[in-house]
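// run 5 | inverse folding | seed 20
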């Protein structure tokens, strides 16, 4: 099956990694051992390993050997998305729209799974963000913004939804959207965040979803 999408050498190494992962193992033998087992030359194997490192599938560190990383759908997606948005900002707004629709469609399913301590953590993000905005000097609460949104969806068991949401925030930072400094805009954003968290706490999920939908439109007015 893999041969339809990858070169012969890539398929050999990927199939080996897949079988290893199914066994519950994340370690790989040395390059010399892999070369013998897979029937590939060491230089060719090194090339394939470097390619898989770029895709975020494996990591290799001195004295730690080669290891299979946890599956992350966003690993290969992030680089391409950053390049696209750097070429033309229209691609940032395209991934922003995709993220908006995902968050809105998965919102109720996600917040239904949050425990009380998860909601408390959301409230803490709001408190920290408002403290930054009211401080002297004023600081942009980007990290709180990112963590609040991702934390709402943290209990979803969906590799692809979380991969796209993580990719969005990487691109958001790459194109400098986290450096925006308009205080009125930031205050409006965090008013929405506070109200969304309050509705989650009250378990009025539909009201929270409606507020989220309104909040999503703010970025297009910047």
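// decoded
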């Amino acid at each position: 099956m893999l041969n339809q999408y990858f070169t012969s050498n890539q398929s050999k190494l990927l199939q080996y990694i897949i079988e290893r992962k199914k066994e519950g193992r994340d370690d790989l033998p040395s390059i010399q051992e892999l070369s013998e087992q897979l029937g590939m030359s060491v230089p060719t194997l090194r090339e394939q390993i470097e390619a898989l490192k770029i895709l975020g599938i494996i990591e290799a560190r001195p004295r730690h050997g080669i290891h299979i990383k946890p599956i992350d759908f966003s690993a290969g997606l992030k680089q391409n998305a950053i390049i696209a948005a750097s070429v033309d900002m229209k691609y940032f707004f395209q991934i922003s729209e995709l993220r908006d629709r995902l968050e809105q469609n998965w919102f109720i399913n996600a917040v239904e799974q949050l425990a009380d301590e998860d909601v408390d953590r959301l409230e803490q993000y709001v408190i920290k963000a408002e403290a930054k905005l009211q401080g002297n000097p004023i600081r942009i609460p980007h990290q709180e913004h990112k963590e609040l949104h991702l934390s709402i969806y943290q209990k979803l068991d969906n590799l692809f939804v979380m991969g796209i949401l993580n990719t969005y925030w990487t691109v958001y930072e790459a194109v400098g959207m986290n450096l925006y400094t308009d205080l009125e805009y930031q205050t409006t954003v965090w008013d929405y965040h506070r109200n969304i968290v309050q509705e989650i706490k009250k378990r009025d999920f539909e009201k929270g979803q409606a507020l989220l939908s309104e909040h999503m439109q703010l970025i297009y007015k910047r």
